[in-house]
């Protein structure tokens, strides 16, 4: 399975921090934000990875990450010319994916879980998989509507969420995801939404899910960026305590 990290967008919610750099290059504790999704994929056994970034800072990613050799991985790069949504950014990965199953992770998401078994079980299968986490502020995310243990719909940033189960920023798809993206129309925000991609699989009854056991957060707002720093720092302290 190949990996795709989506690190585009303008990061306007983190302005003025993002006036001089891409938000995915901001620090979380002791590493740049982009390192965390890279580490999630590597732990899961995925070493062939495409990084999609915006054109304004694409050179910064290349300077920081290079070929991937330092990570024991192989990186390719693609540029999203404009902020057209997560699904549009994913669509740029069609040639890279080359009909293989893909694990897609948002560059501003930080996960505690080891997803290696999830990757192994999904590889070579058909359909899609999302990872859910119970949250106190579901209106900020895509929210899964559940019925009889299955996802029957996903709503993007609902004012009145039908559950508190957020769809986190890691997804697994078969090769048909790119055909699904080509059928999408821009949302009211003028973007191609990843929620619409996920609902494509929901409607054909090929969407599966897992619920994360460990902590998870995005880092796209000042509050969530602070939370990401705190969670990572606490985990680092626990590991250091165990070693001592």
UniProtKB/TrEMBL annotation:
The keyword Metal-binding applies. GO terms for molecular function: glucose-1-phosphate thymidylyltransferase activity; metal ion binding. It holds the Pfam family NTP_transferase. Its EC number is 2.7.7.24. Keywords: Capsid protein, Magnesium, Metal-binding, Nucleotidyltransferase, Transferase, Virion. The keyword tRNA-binding does not apply. It comes from the Bacteria. CDD domains: G1P_TT_short. It catalyses: dTTP + alpha-D-glucose 1-phosphate + H(+) = dTDP-alpha-D-glucose + diphosphate. Residues 2-234 form the Nucleotidyl transferase domain. Belongs to the glucose-1-phosphate thymidylyltransferase family. PANTHER family: GLUCOSE-1-PHOSPHATE THYMIDYLYLTRANSFERASE, GLUCOSE-1-PHOSPHATE THYMIDYLYLTRANSFERASE 1. This is glucose-1-phosphate thymidylyltransferase.
